[in-house]
Structures are given as C-alpha cells and as structure tokens.
C-alpha cells in the first residue's frame, strides 16, 4: 500500500538465508527519507505484483544458493521469465536496477542475480541503474552500501525520464520528490558533512554530527593502534555518517508458566525433518593431524528418507550450550530461561509490513529460542550495531559502536568485526555497558541455519544407513575474541558423539560398532546433478582431496554393489584423485584400496602435501598436480569417451583443478587456452564436468 504523495517503486527480493530480505528492508526503510515509497514483496508472492504491466521502476535484490542457483523463493519467477515462448520485447516497458548477492568462494558467483539480469535484458527490459554484485566473501556492505546510496538519484532520474515519456511536465513531480531531488543533489555535490532535515518519521539522521567524546576503553587514547574497542584519527575525530536507526517491531512477553516447546520440524521450512539415531562415530584422522575428521553413521531405516550418492542433507543444530548460558547471564535473564516467551509484532511499529520472523515461534521457552532459533554466532550487521548504540550507557562505548557502523569507520568494521568473525557475545564482552533487550536480538539475529553435508554412503550398499564425513571446524582465539571456539554444528556433533567415538579406527566398514541413544534431526537437500552417470559403462574421474572424498565413497559403494548384482553389465573405467597432508595422519579412507582390489576403482592416485620426500624428483603435492601427470588419460576420458569429471571440496582446490583441466585440454587438442576454456564450458553445460564445492 503506497502513500499518494510519494513516488512508488516496486521492490522485489529473493532470499535464501535472509540477507537479501534484510537489504530490501533497508532500502524500504531509507526510501521514505528520499520522498519515495517502496512497494516491497518477496519474489515468490507473484499474486502481489505484475511485471507485465509494471510502469514504475523495479528494484530487485536477489541472492544465490547451491551451485549458482537462484534462491528457492525465486524459482517460480525464474521459470516464468525463462519461458522460451516470450517475445524479445516482452519487457520493453520495464526499467529496473538489480543487486545480486553471492560469495566468490563459490563457483558461479552471484549467478542467481546474473541469470535474472540476463534474462530481463533478453526480454527488452532497461537498466535505470547499474547492476551491483556484492560478495559475502569480502563483505557484502562493500558493494551494498554505495549501491544503495546511488540508488536514490538513479531512481529519481528514472522517474523524471518516465514523466518525460508520458509527456507530462516536470511540475507534475510531487513536491516531496523535488525536495528529495534537491537533497540528493546536495548529497552528491557537497563533500562537507552536514545536518540534513529529514522527513518526519525518520528516527535518526543519516548524517550525525556530534561532539566528539574521549574514548577511554581498554586502551589509552595515546595508543596508535586501533582495535575493536579503540579508534584512532581520523575515525576518532570525524563527524560520522551513521545509518538510520531501524524501527523496533518485536514485542516479547515472559510468562512464568511451563509449556511445551514447538517441535524442531516446525522451524524448518525447507522440507520434512526426521529425527534419526546416530549409530556410529569414527575418528578418521590421527590425534596429531591438523584437522580432526569424523565419520558419523545414521540409522534412517525407520525414516521415509531417500537419497542417492552425491546428494547432500542438512543437520539441524543448536547453539553451544555455554554460549547460550553466558548470553542469558549478560542479558540478566538467567532466572527466566525456562519462562515461556510470547513473541508479537509491536503495536504501532514504523516498520512497514512487519511480521514475526518465520523462524521465531510464537511461544517457546527463552532457552529454546536462543538455542535453536537464532544464529547467535552471526557477525553483527551495521544495522544491529546501530541499534546496540541505543542500549549502551557508557559514552565512550557508544561512540565506538557509532564509529563501527558509520561510513567513516567502514574499514574498522571490516577489520575488527567482519574479518575477525566477531559475534554478539564478543561485542557484549567488549562493550560491557551494552545491554540489549531480547526483542532486539530477535529483530537482528538471523535464523540459525541447518548445516549441509554430502552423503558418504550408498543406500544400495548399506540399506537403512546414511554416513557423512566432516572436519571439526576450529576457530583459535584472537585479540578480538580471547576464547577459542569450534564450529556451531561440527563442535556440537563432536561433543554429542564423543562417548561412542572409535579413536583412530580408520575404516570404511561401518557395520556393527557401538550404538547410542543420541538422535539428530535431518532433512534432505538433494543435488540435481552431482550423481553417477545413468549409464554405468561411461568412464568417470573423481577428484576429492580431504573431506571432499566424501561423496565418492558413496559412488564407489554404489558401483561395487551394482557390479556384484549385475555381473553381465559393462562398467566404465573409474579414476579417483585423493590428497591429504600426511599419509599416516589424515589419509581418511586407507581402505580405498579394497575398491581397487575388487575392480570397482580402476585407478587410485594419491598425494600428500606436507610429507617430506627423499626422492630425486619431488612427488606432486596437490591433486591438480597429479591430474596433470595423467593429461592424456584425462583428455581421452573426457573427449573421446564422453566421460564424467567430478570435483568435490573447497573452492581453491576446485579452481586449481579446473585450471589444470583447461591446460590439459589445450595441450591435448593443440588448441589455445581460450578454446580450451570454451570446451570446459561446454562440458559444464553438458553436466559432464560437475563440482560440489563448499569451503
Ligand atoms: P560454523 O560455526 O558455521 O563456522 C563455519 C564458517 O563460519 C567458517 O568457515 C567461517 O567462514 C565462519 N566463521 C565463524 N566463526 C569464525 C571464526 N571465529 N573465525 C573464522 N571463521 C569463522 N562440510 C564437511 O565437513 N563435509 C561435507 O561433506 C560437507 N558438505 C557440504 C555440502 C554442501 C552442499 C554445503 C553447502 C556445505 C557442505 N559442508 C561440508 C560445509 C558444512 O555445511 C559446514 O559449513 C561446516 O561443517 C561448518 O559448520 P559449523 O557449523 O561447524 O561451522
């Protein structure tokens, strides 16, 4: 619903983890101060907007998920615009600006946004503003903040153009818009920091000029080095541009009555959850290995849970119990942890379209809320810091929090918050006079996400069982965070299975072993492409160093079973390239040679990056180096025999492997590098070069 005086634009977002939505809300929030009104909708709400008839400018914020896919909430929209029967002038009436979110750690950076952008262009839509592609790897705000800053002027120009097109005089531009245009120009022309008179209803100025306060926190003002709690000139002496204070919109009520917590499955919108017993835990690495890898086996016999080798699934995990208790203590709520919390939208809130976040139950105990619903480890966004300023009583701490969310303090934010992976608890320790309310936490902390894992077994080989392999993620202490931590999910799983762990029992055979009563909740996350070829006679190459080997264990188990069951079938050649640091410490599945012995695996090539060698010619360290040694065979499998090439593991390795493949194709085909890259692109398109990449 839009106000008559303000110019409307359509704002669509498609979010997977809530970031695109939060950015859209920020745009919506700022729009008022610019004399504009955002008509905001999730892209999936296709009954609420109609691009076919849209006259006003459209702003799209869209993230990327999986291997370059648009978020689930954009699927229907993308399918609709990808309809090949649409004529090339279908959207010529449309002018739009698009902000794509992605992570350059993953292949197909920002592909969700790029896909929509490309298709809208193909259908004749016009950009009124350059596309922004923000990278979560270095900090979304690096692109998002200036993109939003520039959006207002671009929108205003778009409105003027639109009016001109409609043949109306500029006098018809609403007065608030002309005023806003004036402000926009001032903002662009003047480099001086100035106080702006903003529209009524905007609770904080965009530009804050305040009397500077001395900061006497942990460090003295004479210290030259900035830190999380201490700033130095020029930041410490600047007038600050800080974001507008986000309006409060959540209200909580505590009830001293016992009540049932909701079932975990009610928190999951992505699919059906199953509570399954952990039947086995094996430590695959030796005690002296740099990383600890565990294999867990789950009993899925009684769950209607189906999977194929190559699929992933998600584990619903809680926050660390000590961290939850610490948070309760700092918030002064320890005595209320078993109280029921009723969460409602605050009456009369200024936040447009405010609703209770989907991941927050209407009623649950305080402990449940902090344990299962909120990602308390999330790196606080600038809007959260801005809100925390209001709950901080110490003037010095207040000023530092303002700096950290200000434009002037952008590099301090990146260095001391984002890159240091500081979380709410770290901030509350560093700024002890900051006492936020529970409702503020609900407003600003994102959903605690379930973690994905690749299946490392075959349902044919071990019916009713599902295995997966993971490294326990360790975050050592650092100046901003004096306590070491473990990954939320992997740390929790490691603790959960500690009683049934087989120390250093490096085994593929997960039959038998100890059983436990521990259960975890999981749900499916099928992979559409990372599967064995339908035709078993097709040759395949698998590259999976470290825990990247996980899905290939499933592939090999599956193949072994098929070979046993179908002795008359023809099976293609199979190659596995595996690598780890030390042969005797973290060679996760030494029993791979069983697959070699029984003929399931034709070639096993391994390398060890940290073992010293006495050989005259040093052996290759990394899988990509080993692949180069088998250039002729790789080219034969891929080009002559139309085989499949699978890569699983981290992005850095995957890039190294694709570079090696490009070099191999170029050498073996006597083609230049560009030509080889095109061939690799075709292989990707044919789904014969497949990656499952996670960091
Ligand atoms: P988290 O607590 O989520 O921390 C992990 C990340 O948070 C770090 O990588 C880092 O970016 C950041 N971080 C948080 N705090 C800090 C800090 N203080 N210092 C530095 N960085 C910090 N993993 C496997 O091991 N095996 C698999 O088979 C597997 N398959 C996957 C399949 C898919 C499709 C996807 C998307 C991911 C897969 N992963 C796999 C990764 C897995 O989902 C988790 O991300 C991983 O296990 C870490 O989860 P966690 O909760 O323990 O760590």
From TrEMBL:
Looking up InterPro entries in the UniProt record yields: CysJ-like_FAD-binding, FAD-bd_FR_type, Flavdoxin-like, Flavodoxin/NO_synth, Flavoprot_Pyr_Nucl_cyt_Rdtase, Flavoprotein-like_sf, FNR_nucleotide-bd, NADPH_Cyt_P450_Rdtase_alpha
Required cofactor names = FMN; FAD
User: One MF term in GO for this entry?
Assistant: flavin adenine dinucleotide binding
- Entry keyword Metal-binding: no
Which residue intervals define the domain Flavodoxin-like in the entry? 9-152
Annotated localization: Cytoplasm
Superkingdom, taxonomy of origin: Eukaryota
Q: Which GO terms describe its cellular component?
A: cytosol
Q: How does it assemble?
A: Forms a multiprotein complex with MMACHC, MMADHC and MTR.
Write the protein's name.
Methionine synthase reductase
Q: Which species is this UniProt entry from? A: Hemiprocne comata
